[in-house]
Amino acid sequence: MRDLLQQCLSLTDQCGEREASAILRDRLDLLQSAALFVIVGEVKSGKSSFINALLGEDVCEVAPDPCTAGIQELVYGEESSKTVLGEHWERLRLPKPVLKDITIVDTPGTNSIIRNHHTITENYIPKSDLVVFVFPAKNPHTATAWELLSLVRKDWHRKTVFVLQQADLASQQELSVNRERVKQYAHERNVQNPVLFVVSAKRELEGASDSGFAEFREFLRSTVESGEVWRMKVDGSRGTVLKIIRDLIDRWHAEEASIADDRAFYRDLLEKVERRREKAHSLRRLVVDSLGLSYDRLAFRLEEDFRAGLEVGTILRRAVPYLRDKDVKTWIRETRETFEKTAREEIQAESSRVSKDLSDEMKAMLDDLAAAILHRKERRQRTADPVAEDRMDILERLLNQLRDLRISDIVDQKGLEGSDLGKLTLTGGGIAALGAVIAMASHLIAFDITGGILAAVGTGLVAVTLLWKRSAILNDFRQKMETSRNEFRDRLDQEITRIFERLFLEIQHELNEPLLRLDREAERISGLVGDAQRIRETAEAL
Are 208 and 267 part of one and the same domain? Predict the structure, then answer.
């Protein structure tokens, strides 16, 4: 039994269950001491008179008002003495032989006016080996005492004895009826074979042989001599372990259910994100197609301008210093500048138009996630479940992380330097700014591709070279522009895909983090439940 108590104590210490650990330490300390008999009953039930008559001495004060102001431990001592153990708690040492084998504890009335009286009594029950319920013989229908019995039997499985006190105040018919009523009440509270004594403290103090105390003392003597008192102690300790383990397992199962519910919530969020990802990719293709068509128009116009600039008459005119409007290098530079200006305006306009749907989809996703998280928080706040409250901070942190996700977190710094775009969070105007990011990416790709072609064409060209290489230059330019159209689409698709994949990965990371934390917590609780179940099996087999 000591090993079992220590195993259970180790588990409660590991879990930080201070109250349960204190109870187990008390059981360990009391394991080899005298058996603890706790006397309970309502005010004026005759508890104190019962104890005085049992010991043959007025050790507990008897008064018409509620006099037992706290816990009184009556223990054996060579000389009488009193020790104050704390508020509402004192120990009386008495040279009474009966106290060598048992310790008697007098408690406040179950309906006492003493502040916290019920808590005082209930906190003492776990230490007990036997609980003696004292009822007035004339009226044993005292609600608070029977409520306490329900606690004693259901939670702590303590052995119980019933005493009808003040029998001198009741008629024989009343005693007969009330005996059966006590047995009925006991059966209703899972006491199958109630042990019942009918006594009169007044008759005992008068020296009457029919006081009923002889039968109760015989019960005590046989309990001690047969070793039953130690069986009570072992059963009490075993009941304590089973009660604590049952409470722990019930709470951990509730926590496992709460974790499973949280897991389902986060998985549902991840499914929402995945559905939004699929829709975003469909919209992305529309964006790329639309911007690709804009680039095709720009490229075709550039090709036409380039072809017109390479007409024979134009080339010859630009070859004569006094006739030309500009030299070849100036023409190439102006053609490039015109293309860039037109591309910037048209791609900006088209980007703003086509990226709105994509931006709206991203905003809808984040709003959807935020709404789900806020709803979850409100549910948590309405519940009184401390297990659920422990994870409120996870929801708060997740909500803040999604709110604080910045554009600079999902796009490269290239193109954002010197811009305020990267400082925007993906809420409010930040989502709309994604359209600007797409436009910026489109500009960079378009200028990189087409500007490179024009730069290559314009290097070292003179009129004579253009005349005899005109066809080859046009053909080469046409092929390069065709390649540039495909490259623009591919690179734009890759860039937008990369931006949004990064966004989705960031969001999924934020959602997976609490999932991983929940997985670790579930694994920890599963291990604790396994340990508790092994302790319970040992206790049940004892």
Answer: no
Task: Say yes or no: 220 and 264 in one domain.
Answer: no
DSSP string computed for 227-280: THHHHHHHHHHHHHHHHHHHHHHHHHHHHHHHHHHHHHHHHHHHHHHHHHHHHH
Q: Are residues 283 and 210 in the same domain?
A: no
pLDDT at 323: 46
Q: What is the pLDDT of residue 456?
A: 57
| Residue showing tokens 């007409």 | 311
377 in any annotated domain: yes
Do both 337 and 472 map to the same domain? yes
User: Which SS3 state, helix, strand or coil, does residue 164 take?
Assistant: strand
User: Do β-strands 89-94 and 81-86 pair in parallel, antiparallel, or remain unpaired?
Assistant: antiparallel
Helix, strand, or coil (residue 305) = helix
**176 and 294 both lie in a single domain:** no
Write down the residue that tokens 């297990």 correspond to: 387
CATH at residue 171? 3.40.50.300
The answer to whether residues 473 and 378 belong to one domain is yes
* Start-to-end Cα distance in the chain: 8
- Strands of 58-167, DSSP E: 71-76, 81-86, 89-94, 102-106, 130-136, 159-165
Of the residues 191, 226, 261, the one at which a domain ends: 226
For 441-486, give the secondary structure using H, E and C: HHHHHHHHHHHHHHHHHHCCCCHHHHHHHHHHHHHHHHHHHHHHHH
Q: Show the domain range for 204.
A: 36-226
Please list, in sequence order, all residues whose beta carbon lies within 8 angstroms of the beta carbon of residue 241, skipping any fewer than 6 positions away.
Answer: 4, 5, 8, 24, 535, 536, 539
pLDDT, tens digit, for every residue of 260-295? 998 999 999 999 889 888 888 888 888 888 888 887
CA distance 456 to 453: 5
Per the domain annotation, does 360 fall within a domain? yes
Same domain, 317 and 187: no
Global pTM reads 0.69
Half-sphere exposure of 530 (CA within 13 A, CB side): 6
Rounded Cα distance, 15 and 528, in Å: 9
> Is residue 286 included in any domain, yes or no?
yes
Q: What total number of domains does the chain contain? A: 2
Per-residue pLDDT, averaged over 382-392, amounts to: 60
- CB count in 10 Å sphere of residue 117: 22
Q: Between the CA of residue 252 and those of 10, 76, 385, 388, what are the distances in Å?
A: 17, 42, 12, 12
Same domain? 291 vs 381: yes
DSSP strand pairing (81-86 vs 130-136): unpaired
Residue 402, Cβ neighbours under 10 Å: how many? 20
